[in-house]
Amino acid sequence: MHDQWQSIIFDDPGSKHPMLPLVIKVMHCIYRTVNPTRPPPPTVMKWRFSQSLSYQVHEDGYVPSIVILNLREGRPDSTMQTLFTINLNTMTVNDRAHNRHFPVPNEIGSSLRVLDEYVRKIVRETKEAEVEEARRREKEREEHRTRAFYLCLLDKGLIDEDHRRSFSTDSLRCPICSSQQTSCSKCKIISCSNSDCAASSAVPIVRCSLAIHQARRFCTSCLEPPGSLPQLGKCPTCSRLFCSGELTWCVGRPISSNGDIATPPSNLDVSGITPVHPARPLTCGAPTCMLNSEDSRKCSNPGCWSIRFCTTKVCPECITQDNFSCPCGRYRTCGSCESQSSTVRRLLTCPRCLRCFCKSCSYIEACKLCRGVGLCNDCMEEASEEVEHALGGKCQNCQSHLCNTCDDGGQSCRTCSQILCRLCKEEEEVRDFF
Question: Of 242, 322, 338, 397, whose CA is between 20 and 30 Å from 176?
Answer without folding.
Answer: 242
